[in-house]
Structure formats: C-alpha cells, structure tokens
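To: structure desk
From: M.T.
Subject: fold request, one chain
Message: Could you run this one when you get a chance? Sequence is below, nothing fancy, just the single chain.
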Amino acid sequence: MQRDRRRPAHAIIIGGSVVGSAAAALLARRFERVTILERDTLPSRPGPRPGVPQSRHVHVLLARGAAELERIFSGFVAELAASGAEVLDIGRDIAWHTRAGWGVQFESRVMLCCATRDLIEWHVRRRALQQPNVTLIAFMASLQSSIIADILEHAMPVTAISAHRRTENRWRHFDEVADWPEGLVAMGDSLCCFDPVYGQGMTTGILSALSLADCFDAWWTGSVPRAGFSSRVQRTLANIVRPAWNLATSEDLRLPSTTGGQLRFRDRMLHRYVDSVSAAATVDPKVRGPSCRP
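Reply: Done. Structure tokens follow.
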C-alpha cells in the first residue's frame, strides 16, 4: 500500500484528554495516521484517572464547546445525554442570582451539558478512537517490555491506589559526631532511609540489629560497656549502611530529575558494573543465583 503523498505521514499527540482526543479526531482527517501517547492507564468505562486531578468534580460543557464537539462527532450531545448528562437551557433551567437580584427566566436555546469530566472525556476519546487511523498507546506500552501494560489492561484493582511519600534517600552521619553520647545507638530509619523502590530498608535494618548484637558481645563487659562503645557501634553501622546507600543513590543519579547529589567517577564505575551484571543475568543462570559466601 502506497502512501498518500498529499497528506503528512504521522501525527503524535501527547495526552489522551478531551483536548488531545478531539485534536486526534481532527488530525486523523489530515494525516495518514495519528498516535496518542497517554501516561495513565485509561479506564474501559467512565472513571477518574491520576492525570486529571479535578476529574471527580462536576463539569459544565459550555454551549460553544458542545456545539464544536457535535461538529466533530455527529450525534455527540445525544450520546452524552443518553449516558446520564443533563442538557440544560441556560435561561430556562438555571437560576442566576446576582447583586442586582434574580435573572429573568426565558427560553434561551443556549444549552449547557452538565456531567462529570470522566463521562465527557470517555465519550470524546471513544469517538476519536473509532477513526481507523487513530491509535492510543496506556505509556506503559512504550517501555522495553509490554508485559506491564498487558497486565494493567486486563487486571482488576483489588483495593484503591495509595500513594507513598518521603521517597528520598537520607543518611544521618552519626558516625562522624565526635562527642556522641554513651549509651545511645541510632539505627534503622533514624540512621538511614532509602528510596523504597529498591527494597533495601528492612534488610539493612536487620543487618544493623545483628551487628549491634555482635558489638555488644565483643565490647561489653558485665554491666559496663567499654569506653566509646556507642561511637564504635555507629561507625560499624555506617559500614553496614554504606553498600546499600551507594547502590541506591548511584541508581537515582541516572535520572536527570534527581536533586541533592552529583554523578561522580565512582557512580559511573558502579553503573558500568551494574549494567554488566544485568546483561549477564539475562543469559547466565549462575549470575542470578545466590551469592557464594565463605
């Protein structure tokens, strides 16, 4: 099949919102194909999505907007009304109260469509995707592997989505405090917090607890600790934390959006090492197996 040289080949639209979907429908008549890229996993029926924070509010589609959508998608207003939207005459059906009093009621024939943003957007997007040369890609499909996109497309949520905050890596260097108080030991999140995406926090904390016990056995005599016990523990715990810290912060520094640190030679070397191990792990099961310990 040969290209139509009279039309441009490909238009890409970022965002499958009301505006993006309407634009896609219009450009579909002017381009050979149109692709909509959307970061959210779009619902199969009208429903809220993270990319539209005000989507749960009631929306009003003004008369001009409704008229233009009707021009783009014939029968659009009727479809919207059939799905539950209220079509109101602005002069007859809405009471306006101003500083001067109540507005006069009359048959204006200026119609408003009152509906949720989810309903309006869903209908606009559905009609746009009915164009044979319009394709939408739920952002996950653009990843190296489409398996996440496939899962999200067919999976049903078990619970509501909950966000987590405080994702920064943070290390308090108590090991460098010269006059650290005797009898006090900081460990766990009070010492070091990791970006939870790497899953290192609990394991590092457990290793710290084991290290504390070893230090107690080695440096505690009877009911009295040796001088400088707590400072020595903090220095020992720093050595427990450091490998996990280096890995987490180094990986974060791959992202240009990361703030609070600079990419160093050590980080570049660690990136090369991690990339080499990751590549080897795709072909050699020994690389993915448990590490050998003496």
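Reply (cont.): The chain has two domains: 10-154, 170-288. Let me know if you need anything else for the meeting.
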